[in-house]
Amino acid sequence: MTEHLPALQVVIALTAAPLVMLLNRLPRLAWGVTLVTCWATFAVAVMLLLQVSDGSVIRYEMGGWAPPWGIEYRVDGANAWVLLIIGLVSAVVMPFARRSVDQEIPADRIGLFYSAFLLANAGLLGIAITADAFNIFVFFEISALASYALIAMGRDRRAVLASYQYLIMGTIGTTFLLIGIGFLYIMTGTLNLGDLAARLPEVTDTRTIRAAFAFIAVGISLKLALFPLHLWLPNAYSYAPSMVTVFLSATATKVAIYVLLRFVYTVFGFEFSFVELSMAWVLMPLALLGIVIPSLIAVFQDDVKRLLAYSSVAQVGYMILGISFASALGLMASVLHLFNHAITKAALFMAVGCLVYRLGGVSLARVAGAAERMPWTMAAFVVAGLSLIGVPLTAGFVTKWYLLQAALMEGFWPVAALLLATSLIAAVYMWKVVEAAYFRAPPEDAREVREAPLALLVPTWVLTGATIVFGVWAQFPIGAARNAADALLGVPQSW
Amino acid sequence: MVSDAALIYLALAVPLIGMFALMAASRWAGLRDGLVVTTAAVMFGVVLQLLPRVREGQRPSATLLELFPGLEIAFVVEPLGMVFALLASGLWIITALYAIGYMRGAKELNHTRFHVFFCIALFSATGIAFSANMFSLFVFYEVLTLSTYPLVAHKGNEAAKKGARTYLGLLLGTSVGLLLPAIIATWWLTGTLEFTPGGIMAGRVDPTVGAILLVLFMYGIGKAALMPFHRWLPAAMVAPTPVSALLHAVAVVKAGVFTVLKVSVYLFGLDYLRELATSDLILYIAVFTLLAASLVAMQQDNLKARLAYSTVSQLSYIVAAAMLVSEFAALGGGMHIVMHAFGKITLFFCAGAIYVATKKTAISDMHGLGRRMPVTFAAFFIGALCVIGVPPMGGVWSKWHLFMGAYDSGYPLVVVALVVSTLLNIAYLIPPVVTAFLLPSPEREQTGGVREAPLLCVVPLSLTALGCLALFVLAGPLAELLRPYLAVPGG
Question: Which residues of chain A make contact with B68, given a CB cutoff of 8 A?
Fold first, then answer.
């Protein structure tokens, strides 16, 4: 059984999806099956991470076909870490989903909704686990198509437009990726990532490979919402159902970043990407702009969900910034931030989900005075918000600390200063929400508002607690991130 | 014999336990107020247990947790921190009594919330006092800022909110914008943030970089209120008076100058500090602040605002003491933390008592009030003398050391400035007493004899006034306790 874990990682969710669709008439059961599936997926992810925590690599030949002809699943420290993030978030968001989805999705579509969710989940897991370039594209499409459906199910009519925007941008992104992969295939005759890495050096000096690199980098950048290719993200996150926003914000962009790292480090190699093509000098300015501008835009948002969406774009900037240092420490900081930001932002969007559940919306005017009626929800928002800002003893601080170290190590003093300055901007936009919720009087027409139900609060606090736990006992995520960086660099570093 | 670590954790835990206890007892006002005083007393008792060990030359220490290698939340009790912790917890007992009287007398609301945040503030002040490294100190420093914010905004009206926003904005802005970069740079350059006798920078940090770091540190420690980042302190005066008394005359502001001393002595090291181009610059900024704040204080008719500017001025004495880089001055700075604390808390207690008894806040309204509240104004007089530094008050000794230090290090101009400032102290602290005792009261208020504030207000302020007197005699033991903090190993 354990040797089939890599296959199970994807297959469980993939097979459960049509089953859940058949259960459309029985929403409660559909939810139950989805819950069990997500927990099983999470368990598999944990087992995989434990297996590779010693630096080993698990190879799995799909259907017994030997690579490079068959599709290979390959688990190392890097993608086990990403699998864990996806598994964890889906496992925590499912208990949260029941009440939230019941309220936001028409009863006759709940089964379909969960089915799409499982497909999105399976797609993301597949992207992370597969070692086949074309397979990556296929899973990208699976997760993307499912996400379009999920987003379009938002209550606001604008969700449809947001989903359509995402569809256009996402399709351009995956198409670029496909073109790039096609070029690679033409030049090398293989699709297996390891095989590609072995054969590319012979042909790197061709325009085709450089074009392939460009197509892949731009295509993935669209998917990971790198500034200025982020335009789809704020709308998609703002209008999607609460639970979808939680899940996608914590996983979708992270997986895309992982794919970027995989291509840059494993397939093309550090030499080609950073030395020959000087990718750092493209990424760093975009990362810095991507941190500063969306942060400033976030300050002027009136809708909490939208505000957090812009903050997500900025956070992607931090992750790209770490990569752009082209150092082991910077890479490790980025990989660490994948996790820390996932739990932080998921906790924040869950708190927002609680607010939506009781208030019906989260414009600042509607959130006004909410803290008095919903103290636990707002407390979670504040704690997770501190982690987003990067206050010591929260998860956010740990990554900021390492990012700063990485910046200083390269001698980028102004970048380090900018990192601190943008933390202050984050404090400003989080403060806007806090001020509204704690210090403003509730609107006149406020309905009788009570604290969110426990079914929503408990999952919210699980992740909120995690931002504290992993901020205080940071050894676990740091160790895992180092492992992941080792796996990407191919050589164990002396940390 | 209780272990060192247990005592340190207990000192930190007591205010938190007390906080939960009084939250649970919030429905029974009497019990809750009793718990506040008990908590303060127990905490003082625990801190006192550490004193003999520190006097014997031990340095009790404990490591709570290690975030990642080299970055720890750890504690060590050294003389300066010992004094600060004793001061904060000891004065908390008196303040707790006073707060009960004041909050009831002035008919403030939300007593439980008030006491809860007070407990957190004292917890973080103790954390600052015992921090073994700059990172721990920074964490507690920020907790102190955040926990005092609701206290400043306590009244909840527009003025309180506005004041609180200035308070939070300036303190958070300076600490994140300047102090944190300085800490990170220090870590980056030296590989440690440990408070080490003799400093950690010598030989590791280029003096040019060190000079920049010094400016970042001194302005980053916004709680020390160097101009132009002093605005938060007058803004904080919208808080109920017990907050102004314990927190904005003792715990918060003293945490600021305490950090200044810690950074100067244990991170930079006095010898290294002497080499830096900017230590003179900061010295002159501090001297400017202490003169300018005194001048501003003279203009204030609101008694609490006048006291606040006086605090800004007195804090700069201590910053100046650190920048004089003489051991005399640094010792004087340490002593001044205590002397000024007793003097200023007395003054604030008096201001609060006057408010509770008469609702008056303006000095120009206090004509003849001394005949109505003789004890309060007598205490005010004593507190004022202590802040000015006149025998037989404790304040004379710290100023004595400061003068000696300034003269010793070859800064005659600073000596002159200190003399001028002392004269200004007299000019703004004595008039309220004169107004109250010597000027005739307005016609309509001449009826009635002595009508003091409630006993729970008057007794605490008498106690602290007596403390000012007692410190005149106790200055010797205090100096003995503090002296080792300047000792450089092998020096």
Answer: 398, 474-475, 478
CA distance A488 to A134: 20
Pairing of strands A58-61, A72-75: antiparallel
Dist CA B414 CA B287 (whole Å): 7
Only one residue has tokens 């420690």, namely: B221
- Residues pairing with B457 in the sheet: none
Domain boundaries, chain A: 284-495
CA-only gyration radius of chain A, Å: 21
For residue B407, give both structure tokens.
Answer: 């003269």
The pLDDT value given to residue A447: 64
Helix (H) or strand (E) holding A75: strand A72-75
Gap from B189 CA to chain A (nearest CA, Å): 10
Q: Is the Cα dihedral A372, A373, A376, A378 positive or negative? A: negative
pLDDT in tens, A402-445: 999 899 888 888 898 898 889 889 988 998 898 888 878 888 76
% of chain B at pLDDT higher than 70: 98
Rounded Cα distance, A335 and A398, in Å: 12
* Chain-chain contact of B139 with A404 (C-beta, under 8 angstroms): no
Using the Cβ of B65 and the Cβ atoms of chain A, whether some distance falls under 8 Å is answered with: yes
Q: Residue ranges per domain, chain B?
A: 4-486
- Name the residue with higher pLDDT: A474 or A115: A115
* pLDDT beyond 70 at B8: yes
Whether residue B23 has pLDDT greater than 70 = yes
Q: How many angstroms separate the CA atoms of A350 and A463, rounded? A: 9
The DSSP element (H or E) to which B158 belongs, if any, is: helix B158-174
CA distance A439 to A444: 15
- C-alpha–C-alpha distance, residues B293 and B434, integer Å: 22
For residue B216, the chain A residues in CB contact (below 8 A) are: none
Q: Could you read off the pLDDT of A343-383 as tens digits, one per residue? A: 999 999 999 999 999 888 889 988 888 888 888 999 999 99
One-letter amino acid of B453: A
Question: What CA–CA distances, in Å, run from A45 to A91, A246, A347, B212, B308?
Answer: 11, 19, 20, 49, 59
Nearest-Cα distance to chain A for B433, in Å, is 40
Q: Report CA torsion sign: A34, A40, A43, A47.
A: negative
The alpha carbons of chain B give a radius of gyration, in whole angstroms, of: 21
In terms of CA atoms, which chain A residue is nearest residue B180?
A: A420
| Shortest Cα distance, chain A CAs vs residue B409, angstroms | 36
- From the number of C-beta atoms within 10 Å of its C-beta (0-12, 13-18, 19+), residue B14 rates as buried
DSSP A331-400: HHHHHHHHHHHHHHHHHHHHHHHHHHHHHS--BHHHHTTHHHH-HHHHHHHHHHHHHHHT-TTSHHHHHH
Distances (CA, A) of A204 to A184, A197, A213, A271, A276: 10, 11, 10, 11, 10
Q: Are B335 and B479 in contact (CB under 8 A)?
A: yes
Task: Say whether B184 and A404 touch across the interface (CB within 8 A).
Answer: yes
Backbone angles phi, psi at B355, to 5 degrees: -65, -45
Residues in contact with A101: Cβ distance below 8 Å, sequence separation at least 6, in sequence order:
A31, A110, A113, A114, A241, A243
The answer to whether B142 contacts A392, with C-beta atoms less than 8 Å apart, is yes
Q: What is the DSSP letter of A130?
A: B
Listing DSSP states for B200-249 in one string gives S-TTTS-HHHHHHHHHHHHHH-GGG--TTS-THHHHGGGS-HHIIIIIII
Kindly indicate the confidence band of residue A446, based on its pLDDT and cuts at 50, 70 and 90: low
> Which of A420, A427, A472 is closest, CB to CB, to B67?
A472
Q: Answer whether B209 touches A (CB < 8 Å).
A: no
In the predicted structure, residue B488 carries a pLDDT above the cut 70: no
DSSP state, residue B489: T
